[in-house]
C-alpha cells in the first residue's frame, strides 16, 4: 500500500503520515508513533514490537482506517475494478475503541510471558499486502496475533466474535488472489508458531500436523524418519498446510495424486464464536453424517480456522524419471498430452510451457549453463517400478513423436532429473526477475476439460499478442489447468485496462468451455465476480446460507469468495 493512500486514510484523524522507504519496506510515522529513522536515530527508544494502546489506535487509524470505514459504508457504490464486486453489503464491524478493547482482553485471557499480539507497522503491512497477489484492496489489519495452540485460537475467535472484529487467517502468505487481505481491518491470525507434526501414524500411513508446517518441511521430516512415505501435493515451495487446505490447492503432481481435498482425513476447526470441532475421526473412509471436510477445504478461512489436520501419506515410488520434448506449436503439444491421457499412461506429472516462457527461463539465467530451445515444451515426470518407468517413457516418446515432437530427452539419473525439471521449477521466478521499476506480474489461472486446453491457450495467446502484452503461459496440462503470467506497468492505466480485459476474457472463455475460473488459486478477493458467472446467484445463495449459519457476524475473512449480498 502506498504512503499516499495511507495518508488519505489518515486525514480524518488529523495525523500526518510519512513513508521512510529507504529499505524498500514501508515504515510509517505519525504524531502518535515514534519510529526509528532511516539514519538510525530515535526520538523515543523502545522495543519495536511493544506498543501502547495509543499506538494501536494510531496504526489502526492510518493503516486500517479504510477497511473499517468500508464496514460503515451502507449506501451508494464504491469504485469497481475488474472482477471485483461492490463492497457495501457488509455488517457494522467493531469501532476502533472496540478493536482496542478486544486486543486488551485477548492479552489478559491468554497471558504468559510472551505477548502474542503485534501492532508493528511492518508486520501489519506484511499481513495485509502481497507482492504476489494481483488483488490488493485498501486496508490493513490493526493487529497480528501469533497463537501457539488451538485453545489460544479459540480465545481469539470468541473475543473477536463478541466485539465483531474481523479475523483473517494467515499461514504461508503465497496466495495470488488477495486471499489474506484485510479490507475491513481486524486481526490477522498468523499460525507461524503452530508448525509441528503432532502425531505420525506410520502403520496407518497418515500424519497429524499443525497449519503452519510447509509441505516441503513435512516431507523433509518424513524423510529423516526414514518412513518411506511422503505427502504428494506440491504447490509453490513456500505454501503451508493451512493455506493449502483453505484454497484446495494442487500442483504438478495433481495429474496422478489429485488435489488437497483428496488427502485430508479430518480437521480440527475453530468456528467464528470460538467453538472447537473435529470434522470426523481417523479411518480412511466414513459415511457418517455430512462431509464437513469437503465444506472446510476450499473455504478460504471464511467458515473457520483450521488448527490441526490429519493427512493421508503415499508410499515413495521405487523409481523416478523426467522427460522433456519440444513441439512446433502449442496445439501439437496439447494434442500429444491429450493422447497420453486418453491412452491411460500413468504419468506422475505433465506440464506445458510456451515458447515465451522458455525464452523467459533462458533470459533469467537461473538454469545456466543449460540453454533451452525456445519452443512449446512438455515436461513429464514418471514414477513407479523401474520396469514400469522404462515402459512408460517409451510409450510417451512414441506418442510425442507422432504429434511432431522432437528433441526428446529423458533423465538417466537424479542429477539429470533435477536439470531437466529445472526450467519448470524456475518459471515463475524467472518471470519475476524480468520486472523493471514500476512493473508487476499478473498471474492467474483457469481450468477447462483437457480436450479444450489447446483451444483456450491458442485464443488467449493470440489476444495477448494483439494487445502487445508480454505474457507467458504454463500449465498442468494433464488436468486442463493453465496459468497466464503478464508483465505490466502498474502506473500505466491504459496498460492495466488491457491486462484486466485480457484476464476477464480468458475467464469467460473458460466458462464457455465448461471450465472454471480457477483451478487452484481459489477465489479470494479478486475473482468474486467470476464465481458468480460460474455458479450463478442461486448457488451463491446456498454458500451465503452456510456462511450465515456458521458465522452470523460475518467476521471470518470477510470480503473473500463472495459478498454478503449481491
Q: Which terms summarize this structure?
A:
566 residues; alpha+beta; five-stranded antiparallel sheet; globular; transit peptide; oxidoreductase; D-lactate dehydrogenase (cytochrome); FAD-bd_PCMH-like_sf
Tell me about this structure.
Helices cover 36% and strands 17% of the residues. By secondary structure, it is α+β, with helices and mostly antiparallel strands. The strands form five sheets. It has a seven-stranded antiparallel sheet with strand order 17-14-16-15-19-20-18, with helices on both faces. A five-stranded antiparallel sheet has the order 7-8-12-10-11. Strands 3-4-6-5 form a four-stranded mixed sheet. A hairpin with a 4-residue loop joins β19 and β20. α11 packs antiparallel against α16. It is globular. It starts with a helix and ends in a 16-residue tail after the last helix. 49% of the residues are buried. It is an enzyme of class 1 (oxidoreductase). It is found in: Mitochondrion. Its main location: mitochondrion. Its EC number is 1.1.2.4.
Q: Give the percentage of residues in beta strands.
A: 15-25%
Q: How many helical elements?
A: 18
> What is the β-strand count?
20
- Looking across the biggest beta sheet, what order are the strands in? 17-14-16-15-19-20-18
Q: In whole angstroms, how far apart are the ends?
A: 27 Å
Q: Can you tell me the residue ranges where pLDDT is under 50 for at least 5 consecutive residues?
A: 1-57, 59-88
Rg over CA atoms, rounded to whole Å, is 24 Å
Overall structural class, as computed from helix and strand content, comes to alpha+beta
Whole-number mean pLDDT: 84
The biggest beta sheet is recorded as: 7 strands, antiparallel
Helix content: 25-40%
Oligomer: single chain
Amino acid at each position: 500500500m502506498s504512503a499516499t493512500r495511507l495518508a488519505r486514510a489518515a486525514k480524518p484523524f488529523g495525523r500526518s503520515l510519512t513513508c521512510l522507504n529507504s529499505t524498500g519496506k514501508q515504515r510509517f510515522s505519525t504524531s502518535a508513533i515514534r519510529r526509528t529513522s532511516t539514519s538510525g536515530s530515535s526520538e523515543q527508544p523502545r522495543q519495536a514490537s511493544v506498543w501502547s494502546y495509543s499506538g494501536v489506535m494510531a496504526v489502526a487509524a492510518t493503516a486500517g482506517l479504510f477497511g473499517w470505514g468500508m464496514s460503515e459504508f451502507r449506501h451508494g457504490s464504491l469504485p469497481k475494478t475488474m472482477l471485483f464486486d461492490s463492497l457495501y453489503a457488509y455488517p457494522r464491524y467493531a469501532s476502533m475503541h472496540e478493536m482496542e478493547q478486544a486486543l486488551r482482553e485477548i492479552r489478559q485471557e491468554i497471558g504468559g510471558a510472551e505477548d502474542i499480539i503485534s501492532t508493528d507497522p511492518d508486520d501489519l503491512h506484511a499481513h495485509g499486502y502481497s507482492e504476489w497477489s494481483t488483488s490488493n484492496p485498501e486496508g490493513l489489519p490493526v493487529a497480528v496475533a501469533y497463537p501457539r495452540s488451538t485453545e489460544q485460537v479459540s480465545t481469539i475467535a470468541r473475543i473477536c466474535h463478541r466485539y465483531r472484529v474481523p479475523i483473517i487467517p494467515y499461514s504461508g502468505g503465497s496466495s495470488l488472489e488477495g486471499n489474506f487481505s484485510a479490507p475491513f481491518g481486524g486481526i490477522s491470525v498468523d499460525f507461524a508458531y503452530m508448525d509441528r507434526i503432532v502425531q505420525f501414524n506410520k502403520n496407518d500411513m497418515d500424519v497429524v500436523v499443525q497449519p503452519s508446517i510447509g509441505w516441503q518441511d513435512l516431507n523433509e521430516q518424513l524423510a529423516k524418519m526414514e518412513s518411506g512415505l511422503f505427502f504428494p501435493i506440491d504447490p509453490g515451495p513456500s505454501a503451508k498446510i493451512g493455506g493449502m487446505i483453505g484454497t484446495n490447492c494442487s500442483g504438478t503432481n495433481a495429474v496422478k495424486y489429485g488435489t488437497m481435498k483428496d488427502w485430508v482425513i479430518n480437521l480440527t476447526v475453530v468456528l467464528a464464536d470460538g467453538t472447537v470441532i473435529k470434522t470426523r475421526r481417523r479411518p480412511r473412509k466414513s459415511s457418517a453424517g455430512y462431509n464437513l471436510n469437503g465444506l472446510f477445504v476450499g473455504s478460504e478461512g471464511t467458515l473457520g480456522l483450521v488448527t490441526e489436520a490429519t493427512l493421508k501419506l503415499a508410499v515413495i515410488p521405487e523409481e523416478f524419471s523426467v522427460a522433456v520434448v519440444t513441439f512446433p506449436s502449442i496445439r501439437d503439444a496439447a494434442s500429444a498430452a491429450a493422447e497420453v491421457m486418453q491412452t491411460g499412461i500413468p504419468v506422475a506429472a505433465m506440464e506445458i510451457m510456451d515458447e515465451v516462457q522458455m525464452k523467459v527461463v533462458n533470459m533469467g539465467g537461473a538454469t545456466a549453463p543449460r540453454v533451452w530451445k525456445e519452443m512449446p515444451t512438455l515436461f513429464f515426470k514418471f514414477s513407479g517400478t523401474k520396469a514400469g518407468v522404462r515402459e512408460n517413457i517409451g510409450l510417451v516418446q512414441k506418442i510425442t513423436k507422432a504429434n511432431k515432437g522432437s528433441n526428446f530427452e529423458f533423465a538417466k539419473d537424479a542429477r539429470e532429473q533435477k536439470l531437466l525439471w529445472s526450467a519448470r521449477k524456475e518459471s515463475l521466478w524467472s518471470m519475476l526477475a524480468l520486472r523493471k521499476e514500476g512493473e508487476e506480474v499478473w498471474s492467474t489461472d483457469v481450468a477447462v476439460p483437457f480436450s479444450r486446453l489447446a483451444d483456450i491457450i491458442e485464443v488467449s495467446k493470440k489476444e495477448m499478442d494483439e494487445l502487445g502484452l508480454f505474457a507467458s503461459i504454463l500449465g498442468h496440462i494433464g488436468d486442463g489447468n493453465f496459468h497466464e503470467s503478464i508483465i505490466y506497468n502498474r502506473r500505466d492505466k491504459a496498460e492495466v485496462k488491457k491486462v484486466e480485459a485480457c484476464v476477464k476474457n480468458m475467464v469467460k472463455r473458460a466458462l464457455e468451455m465448461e471450465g472454471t475460473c480457477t483451478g487452484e488459486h481459489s477465489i479470494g478477493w479478486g475473482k468474486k465476480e467470476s464465481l458468480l458467472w460460474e455458479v450463478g446467484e442461486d448457488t451463491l445463495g446456498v454458500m451465503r446460507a452456510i456462511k450465515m449459519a456458521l458465522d452470523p457476524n460475518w467476521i471470518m475473512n470477510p470480503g473473500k469468495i463472495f459478498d454478503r449480498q449481491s
